[in-house]
Write a structure and sequence with these properties.
The structure holds two protein chains of two kinds. By secondary structure, chain A is of the alpha/beta class. In chain A, about 40% of the residues lie in helices and about 25% in strands. In chain A, the strands form two sheets. Chain A has a six-stranded mixed beta sheet with strand order 6-7-8-3-9-10, with helices on both faces. Chain A has a four-stranded antiparallel beta sheet with strand order 2-1-4-5, with helices on one face. In chain A, helix 3 (about 105-115) crosses helix 4 (about 120-135) and helix 4 packs across helix 5 (about 150-160). The longest helix of chain A is centred in the last third of the chain and has 18 residues, at about 180-195. Chain A is globular. Chain B is mostly helical. Chain B has two domains: about 5-95, Transcription Regulator spoIIAA (2-Layer Sandwich), CATH 3.30.750.24; about 130-365, no CATH class. The chains are: A alpha/beta, B mainly alpha. The interface of A and B includes residues 115, 125, 126 and 195 of A.
């Protein structure tokens, strides 16, 4: 496979501490995401998965440590350098975060208008391809408020892919989707990863989807303030001795675990 | 390119950045070529392409579609097999080129009718809101224990105490300007000593309540509309309704009660500051405080102050109610909240003028 990046890892996290002010959620996280990998972040509600994600793509400044995206340190980058790193990835937020005053097509073309020299027709065609990938082609002229929550999420994925970034950060992409759409989305993610070498960093709870697509997962824990398991999800499910990991993968209620 | 067979080759990286400009050039030469060679085959040679992504796919689809439309064929050679599944995602490509929908133009009569209908709907909404509000205010009198007094206090502090500096500043300046303007005119008749009573009467009956109401409209009415509007957008208002709580009682009543309390107090404050400003200004014209004071006492009686405060109370109701109404009428999305806040201020000011007019008519007829 042609590897255009000269760094070994798509993302390299070194001694990262995540939190807000004096409230530390995660301490000294160290992990790497390989190029073209589908990497899933797991953990119970409120353990800081979304916060970690926002630290990874530079929206929040970490309390400590570094995040290297394709070898470049996003935590220290400023100005044009930072801008360049920011355009190398796409982000889908948990709630979609589509621009409410624009229809779906315009939501997808917005970033192309800013960063490329394509004509309107070319951008429209590109945006339609993205919307087709997430099954929303017939809704291109709808406003975000006119479609369902699940559709908004899919449109947000299309927008995240607008510039064909090498890394996509998805915050709970399949939550709220029906099983068929969710499976379609999984297969789209796999195709993109396999054929384009796009790296995916996904926060997810959907076990079926995790088993189907993940190359590697990390599991975070609120009390341990760090990673409690790392590796292939199927292997973890079958072999992990850690009761918390076992409980998660086998959907055991907390009161039955002890 | 020749008559029967055209070939396009690109090398290197094909992505959304590198296609800018190149795509347009290729499109232009393809269209020029197709004009004379409509049934021919266009070949794209991708053997030198080192990287290819979703933008590249869209580019190839664009070329293929142009060929199809002209009745020609498109042939793709040399593309790395790992990119093939990407192209298959979009089969058939015709779906990506929808026929642009033509929006039917509305005739003048239709749009006039729709505008009239909107006006009628708006008036209906206002009337039914007024009715509901009156009922719920009456309810709050009978069940004072159930009113959300915490919200009432917060709103009263935010709309009242926090508004003191701006109300003070504006009413001081209005007092100065009013007195100066009046003094310039009166000086021609040697009647400068009458400026005090004139300004004081104008301030107490008209300017004080009006300034306060307009400032309340700009500050608090917009704030109510934005707050309740955001709650509407976030389905928080729906959550109240489905939980069996009345948004009128829960959100509107405490705010309107706060408006009723705050507006006359702020008006009284504005009256005092304005009169003091007027007094200071008249010092410049050589009118001592005591003369101003005595002149004012002769011209302004308690009824005048009372009339101004009653009017201010009505303004308080109107301004806070319009803010709440526009907030409840918010549509969806972030822009809708902005529209609601704007509409709240505009409607508040219109209603202030209407109420002021009605009040002027009544006091003219009754002499109050």
């Amino acid at each position: 496979m042609t590897d255009l990046t000269n760094s070994t890892y798509a993302i390299d996290v070194q001694n990262l501490t995540v939190g807000y002010g004096s409230n530390v959620l995660m301490q000294n996280l160290n992990f790497t995401v390989n190029n073209g990998e589908i990497f899933i972040i797991l953990g119970g509600s409120g353990c800081g998965k979304s916060s970690l994600l926002k630290n990874l793509f530079g929206l929040y400044q970490p309390l400590g440590g570094d995040v290297l995206i394709e070898g470049q340190n996003i935590t220290t980058a400023q100005g044009a350098e930072r801008q360049k790193i920011m355009t190398s990835f796409g982000v889908m937020y948990q709630q979609g975060a589509l621009f409410g005053s624009m229809n779906l097509l315009d939501n997808v073309t917005l970033f192309m208008e800013e960063y490329t020299d394509l004509t309107q027709d070319q951008m429209d065609l590109l945006a339609r391809c993205k919307l087709d990938l997430v099954g929303l082609l017939p809704y291109e002229s709808y406003m975000p408020s006119e479609i369902s929550g699940g559709m908004q999420k899919r449109a947000a994925i299309a927008r995240a892919m607008a510039l064909d970034p090498k890394i996509l950060f998805l915050d709970e992409p399949s939550a709220g989707l029906d099983p068929i759409t969710s499976a379609d989305l999984d297969s789209t993610i796999q195709d993109l990863s396999k054929n384009l070498g796009i790296t995916f960093v996904i926060v997810s709870h959907e076990l079926a989807s995790i088993y189907a697509i993940a190359d590697k997962v990390i599991m975070l824990d609120k009390d341990a303030k760090g990673i409690i398991a790392e590796g292939d999800p199927k292997v973890l499910r079958d072999t992990s001795q850690d009761p918390r990991v076992h409980q998660f993968f086998n959907r055991i209620m907390s009161k039955d675990a002890a | 390119m020749d008559a029967s067979n055209a070939k396009v080759a690109l090398n290197g990286v094909i992505n959304v950045y590198s296609l800018g400009g190149v795509w347009t050039q290729i499109q232009a030469s393809q269209n020029a070529w197709l004009k004379h060679n409509s049934n021919q085959t266009l070949t794209f040679d991708a053997s030198q392409v080192s990287f290819f992504d979703g933008a590249g796919v869209a580019f190839l689809i664009g070329l293929e579609e142009a060929q199809q439309k002209a009745g020609g064929k498109f042939n793709l050679v040399g593309l790395d097999p790992r990119y093939q599944p990407l192209l298959k995602e979009f089969d058939p490509i015709n779906n990506l080129f929808p026929v642009p929908a033509i929006k039917p133009k509305r005739s003048f009569i239709v749009s006039t009718g729709m505008a009239a209908q909107n006006l009628i709907d708006d008036a209906k909404g206002l009337i039914s809101f007024t009715g509901h509000l009156a009922l719920d205010l009456f309810w709050s009198l009978r069940h004072p224990g159930q009113v959300r007094w915490g919200d009432f206090v917060n709103t009263a502090v935010e709309a009242g105490i926090a508004a003191l500096p701006i109300v003070g500043l504006v009413s001081f300046l209005i007092g100065v300007i009013l007195s100066f303007q009046a003094a310039i005119g009166m000086a021609q008749f040697g009647a400068v000593s009458f400026v005090g009573p004139l300004a004081a009467l104008g301030i107490v009956r008209e300017m004080g309540p009006l300034i306060t109401a307009i400032l309340l409209a700009g500050r608090s009415s917009a704030a109510f509309a934005a707050e309740i509007g955001t709650m509407t957008v976030n389905s928080e208002v729906d959550a109240l309704v489905s939980g069996g709580l009345s948004p009128m009682r829960f959100l509107v009543v405490p705010r309107v009660l706060a408006g009723i309390l705050v507006a006359p107090i702020l008006t009284l404050f504005a009256d005092i500051v304005s009169v003091i400003a007027s007094m200071l200004t008249m010092q410049i014209y050589g009118i001592p405080f005591i003369n101003f004071y005595n002149g004012m006492l002769a011209a302004v009686n308690v009824e005048d102050i009372g009339s101004g405060l009653i009017k201010a109370t009505l303004f308080g109701v109107v301004v806070s109610a319009m803010g709440c109404l526009r907030g409840m009428q918010t549509g969806t999305g972030a822009a809708a909240v902005g529209i609601s806040a704007t509409r709240a201020v505009v409607s508040s000011i219109v209603m202030i003028v209407v109420v002021d007019g009605i009040f002027a008519f009544i006091s003219y007829k009754t002499g109050f």
